[in-house]
Structure formats: C-alpha cells, structure tokens
Amino acid sequence: MEQHVLEILEYNKIKKRLAKHTSSKLARKLVDNLKPVSDFDFIQERQLEVTAAKKILNREEKYPPLGGIKDVRDSLKRTSKEITLNGEELVEIADTLSTSRNLKRYLLNLEDEEDEYKSVVKYGTQLDNFKPLERKINKAVDNQGNVLDTASTKLRNIRRSITDYSQRIKDKLNSILSSKKYQSYIQDSLVTIRDKRYVIPIKSQFQEKVSGIVHDQSASKQTVFIEPMAVVKLNNKLRSFMAEEEEEVYRILTELTYEVREELDRIKETLKLLAWLDFTFAKAEYSFKIEGAEPVLNQEEYINLEKARHPLIPQDEVVPIDIKLGGKFDTLVITGPNTGGKTVTLKTVGLLTLMAQSGLHIPALSGSKIAVFDEIHGDIGDEQSIEQNLSTFSSHMTRIIDILETAQENNLVLLDEIGAGTDPTEGAALAMAILEELYSRGRINTIATTHYSQLKTFAYQQEGIQNASVEFDVETLQPTYRLQMGMPGRSNAFEIAGRLGLPTEVIEKARAKLSEEDIEVDRIIQSIEESKQSIVENEEAARKERKKAKELKEEYETKLEEVEKLEQKIKKDAYAEAEKIIAESKKKVNEVVTEMKEKAEVNQQEVDRAKSKIDEYKYNLSSERVDLESDLKQQRIQQNSEDLEVGDKVRLKKLNKEGEIIELSEDKEEAVIQAGPMKVNVDISRLEQMDESDQQTEASNNSNGLNNDTNIGSLKNKKSRHISPKLDLRGLRAIEAKEKVDKYLDDAYLANISKAEIVHGKGSGVLREVVHDLLDEHSQIDEYRLGGKDEGGSGVTIVKF
C-alpha cells in the first residue's frame, strides 16, 4: 500500500494502540512491521487466528501464559559467535523456554471438541520442549543471574574457603581495631575493602605507626586505608580463592552457553512462534477493545459495512454507519454539509479496509463484508504546500493526476471534496469527468465527497454511480453524522439562514435567483426525505405494535396455563373428595350390615346386592379418575411434542426405548432419534418427552447400582476381565490422549493392575509430556519411568500403581 494512504488514513495510530496489548518486545516488533497485504488466503488465515484467539480469551478462565517471553535475539547471536553468555542472559533464555513449555501445555490442554481453536493451537503443537536445558540453567544460576554454589562441587568448596578466609581476616582485623595499642591511630572502628582486600582506616598522621600496605586514602586525605602485615598472607590466599572462583564461574557459564548453542536453531524457531502467538493474542485483545468482528472477505470488490465505526473516535462519541459499494454500483458520491461526517465516512471505509487486509478485526457488526484490494489510493484533506507554492486546488489536482496514472482494476479510490478550490462550475465539471474516467476503467471502486449540487444529478443519471448523504437536523442546526445511502444531501442553506434570523424577504429573493432545475432537484430531494421519514415512523409504529402483540400473546398464554392448572386441581380435588365420601359411606354400610346380621333382620341376598352397587359406583369413579389422569398425561405429552427441540431426551412409546433428538424436520412432524448406536426416523407423535423426574429416576437407578461393596467388587471383577495392562496412544491428538489416559488410569486401578505400559511413541514428545503431566497429578500412581531397551525405550512409559 502507498505510504501516503497509510498516513492520511492514520494507520500508524492503529498500530500504536495494538502494540499496547502485546506482552513482549518481540511481538511489538511484529506490530511495527505490520502492513496491509493483498494475498487473500494469507489474510483469511490471519483473520481466523484472531477469531480463534478471541474465543480462547472469552471462554477460558486462565489467560495464556505469555508474560515470560524475553527478547533474547542478541544473546543467541552472541552464542552463535561462541561468546560466553553471562548469568542474566542465560536466565532470560531459561525464562523464555519455560514460557514456551507452559504455553504449549496451555494450548494443548484446551477443551476444543469443535476444533474452533485449531488456528491457534496448531502453533502450540510446533513449540519445542527444552525442559532439560531449563533445569541445567536453573540449577546453576539464580533469578538475578548469579551462579549458585550448587552449580559444581568445586565451586561450592572454593566459596566455603572464601567464606572461611574472609572470616579469619575480619577476626584478625577486629582484634587490631579493639587493641589499646592502636586505639589512638584508628579513624573508625570498622573493617572495609579496597582493591578487593580487607583494610582498616587509620588517621593519616599515624600511618607510620601501623605496619602494613596503604591501598587508598579519603578525599579529605585525613584517612588512609591500610592492610596490616598480619593479614597480608591471608588476603593473598583469599585473592587466590577468588581468582579460582572466577575461573570456575566462567567455566560453568561457558558450558551452559555451549548447551544453548547446541539447541540454537530450535530455540530460534520457538522464539518466532512465541512472538507470533503473543502478536495474535494482542490482535484478539484489540478486537475486544474496539468491539470488533471478523469481516467476511471477498475478491469481488464488494463492500457492505454494517454499523461500522471509526476506531480512533471514542466509542461514546462515534456514530455507526451502514455503507455499501460494489455490485450494482462501483462509485459512491457523498454530499452534505461541512462537519457533517463525509470525510469521517471516507476514512472509516479506507481504514477498516487497511485493518482487514492486515489481519485485524474491524469495528463493525459480524457479517460485514470487505473486499481485498490490490491497492488503495486517496486524496483526503487539504494538502496545500507552501514550499512548493501550490494552492489547495493545485495540490488536489497533483494528487488526482498521480491517482489517474496508477489506478487500475481491483483498486479502491477515496476522493475528498473532489474538484474543490476553484470555480464551482468548472470544479463540478472536472469532478464529473474524473469520476467518469475512473468508472470507465472497470472494477475500480470509488468513493467521493463533494459540495457540488451538479454531482447529485450526475449520480442519478449515470449508470453505476450512486448517491449518498450525511444527515443534517434542521431543527437543531446540527449534523447527525448518519449516512443515508441512495439519497443526495440537501444544502438546507435557506432553512438554516431563516432559523438564524435572516429576513424572509431576503430568503425569498435568494430563492428567486435559483434556476428551475435547482428548485426541482431540491424539491425532489425534500420529497424523498419526507417519504423516508414517513417510512421510518411507520416502521417504528409497526415495531411497537409487534412488541405489544407479543406481550399480549405471552400474557394470554400465561393466563391460559394458569386456568388449565386450576381446572386440573379442581377435578383432582373433587375426585379425591368423592373417594373419601365413598370410603366413609362404605364403612357406615358395613357397620349397618354387621349390625343387621347380628339382629338377623335382613336377607343376606339384599345385603350382598347393596354392597355390589357400592363397589360398582366406586369402580366407575376410579375409572373416571384414571381417564382424567390419562387425558392430562396425553395433554402434557402433546404439549411437550410441540416444544421438542434438538438435544431433548425422549422415549419411543411403542418400543419403550430412550434416546436423544439429533434432527427435526422444519414442520416438526418427524425427528431423527439417536438411541444407543442406532439412529431412527420416527413420527413426532410416537415420542414422549422425558421430564426431569424421569431423568432423575434413571440417574438414581444408575447410581443405586454402585452403592454397596458387592457392586464395587463386581465392578472390579468386570474391569479386571476387560482392562489390558497396555494402552496405545500413537496417532492420537493431545486432547484425545489426555481423556483416554485419564479414564484408563481409573479403570486399571479398579482392575487391580499393578503395572501398566502406556505407548506414546517418540515423535515430538507432546504425547509423552501429556502422559507424564497426568501421572504427576494422579493420586494412585506409585511411580513411573520410561521403558528400558527391551521395553520400548523413550516411546513407552511404565506405570506402577
């Protein structure tokens, strides 16, 4: 892209804001080098990466571990030249390699059943593991870059000697400082160091009184620092040990540098991947910041931005715009008042196109379409040059001439105030000629802003050119900044002048000086605006009516449901009361019958006949209750079948088999059911939705089977018959392997397997690391190790429970 266009569209400001979201200097370097490209596949891939990174940031609780990435390129360059690195440099390398390992683990452990993260996770699989090198560095060097005593046995012994001799020297010097003999000669009662040798401060006038070597004197020359002869030999020995320490430290650092050099190429590749991942997550963070979305890219020179916002204008101030370009028209002429938003619209389209072609999300609604252009040309703003003695018109013309010389197919041209700065009639004629020329070349998308009313008529008459305007509120005398596609803007000069107080007679005289054509055009535009306003008002009224109707429907359905529940309750209560009455009546009848039997005053046949009638009445009442309950259940089933959705648990009535809906026909008359391994296409009427009580009962039944020792023992016996002591993971992805190993470890433990083999292969080591991470965390694992030569070597892990 032309540097001029990047400047006038303020592309570098976007890069500065993006850089704030990076975690490392390496990623900031990638931001600095970021430029729009025209490779469609490359852009599409970058957009998918940002989308995947956004999903990770949005869904996962933990943020990607990017904080430890250091710019160790200079250190690696020194290593390649066989220059020994210092401790700080080695620590930075170790920290970076540790970040690589942690980031790899983070990405490979993400739950991603739908492969929505794969555009980012693929880089995680390419990150190398340098754990042995990390350990060597961390064992030898502390966080501040100091070589530790544990780096070697020799170093530890040397430092013990240094500590011992230092203490002996201090003790000797302290005895001198506390002796009465030297009390009057001493300036301060403290032991200090000069030239890496322990000394004591003596007053200058008494330096001859103290036998020893003078190493320094104070700025006032009142004090000299003397190394007494009594400690010279001890100091010499101490210096000897210090020299040995330096040699050993250098040897250790050189050895570690060699270890780094052995892995140099792999470290460099890992560094690039870390930088790229940091860069990608920074783009995702910036997308959140601007409420961005992945644009739908195309190669048909088609733009359709919905609710697009200029990313450099504060979100509480920016007015979203909808704009189309391409398809039926390739040229858009935008008219409207000054400060109405014409230039902002022009810059929004240009800047969002640059962002999209840089692999960045754009601040617009999801689904907004952006074309990938080979080049963007622009003439925006007043580029008048005092040095070159160019007027505003001349500077614009110079730029437009350059554009006409280079613009070709699949280019986007942005022209602000085309033809401005000269006589309006000639300027408008030039503007029309320029737009015609660009349109005639074919497949050049052009957006131009103008004040010239002649261009409004031109856009109506010319095929492939469309009008648009920025809205102006005559009531408030303020622009609304909204873009109106297909409608030219009115100047509103007379209305504004009238509201500001210009006498009516002056305004009418002005109107009289307009040509009939100008008046007619203004009248047509006004009519279109009024029609549009009427449509907007009607749409708003219709929207309110739809909302009101929806609320009434919901209210009706709620009340209907309440009435049905009340009806059911009344019937249920009535039948319950009837049963109670019958029971009491039967009891009384039985009492009477018993009493009559005792008195022998009634025929047994009559008694039996009476009891039979009572039983018949009771049976009929019970049947009616059963019928009611059946009707209620059938109503519930019918209601449920109407509400069935994909994913619902259902029961096939005739087969008495349970399953899950995986597909529904559009009319909801048929459904595809997954019942175990079998898929069945059935009529919706044959299905019964399982309610929560059904599913809870089923879950309870399942759980109750494992509530005693007998069942646990049975499970263990069953496991022991089916669990192999060997698990093969080769060919699986990391996340698949993790799930399989996790389940296998539990099953193997239940099966009382004492030793198991997990085959993960050698490869890149990703599967091995996943297995070892799980084994570290599993409470039932006694120990694990890599296989021996006869057991498969580093491609197998032996596990003991």
Radius of gyration: 44 Å
- Compute the separation of the termini in Å: 63 Å
User: Number of DSSP helices?
Assistant: 23
Counted up, domains total 6
Largest sheet geometry? 6 strands, mixed
Could you state the CATH homologous superfamily of the largest domain? P-loop containing nucleotide triphosphate hydrolases
Question: Would you tell me the overall average pLDDT?
Answer: 82
Task: Estimate the strand proportion.
Answer: 15-25%
Structural class: alpha/beta
Beta strand count: 23
CATH topology of the largest domain: Rossmann fold
- The CATH level-2 architecture of the largest domain is identified as 3-Layer(aba) Sandwich
The coarse silhouette is flat
Low-confidence spans: 383-389, 703-719
| Helix content range | 40-55%
The CATH first-level class of the largest domain comes to: Alpha Beta
The strand line-up of the biggest sheet is 10-11-12-8-13-14
